[in-house]
Amino acid sequence: MLNACREVLRTVNTLVSSVDPGQFDRATPCADWDVRALLNHLVWKNLVWAGLAEGTPRTDATADHLGEDHIEAFRTASEAALAAFGRPGMLRTSFGVLERRQSRGDGRDTG
Known about the structure:
Order of helices and strands: HHH
Strand content: under 5%
Number of strands: 0
Shape: globular
Number of helices: 3
Helix content: 40-55%
C-alpha cells in the first residue's frame, strides 16, 4: 500500500515540478480553482493525512500551503504523509471521518 502511494506521489511530484509559477493563474477543469489553488489543495491534502496519522488534525484549510516554492511544499508534505503512515501499525489503524473542507489556496474554501 505504501509503495503504491509512494509511486503516485512520485508521479504527482513530477507534474507539480513541471508547473512554472507563471502558470498559477491559469484555469483548471474545476471552475472555482486556478492552478495555484489546485497545487495548494494537493499540498494541503498531504498535510491533512500526515496530521491525521500523527493525531494532530489540521485546522488551517484556508492557509497558503505553497509559500514561495510550490515544488518544495509538495515534496515536504508528501514526505510527511508517507513518514506518518509508514510508522508500525499505521495501516491497520482506524481514523474515523475526515471533515470535508477543501482549501482553494486564496483564503477561501469550498466548505
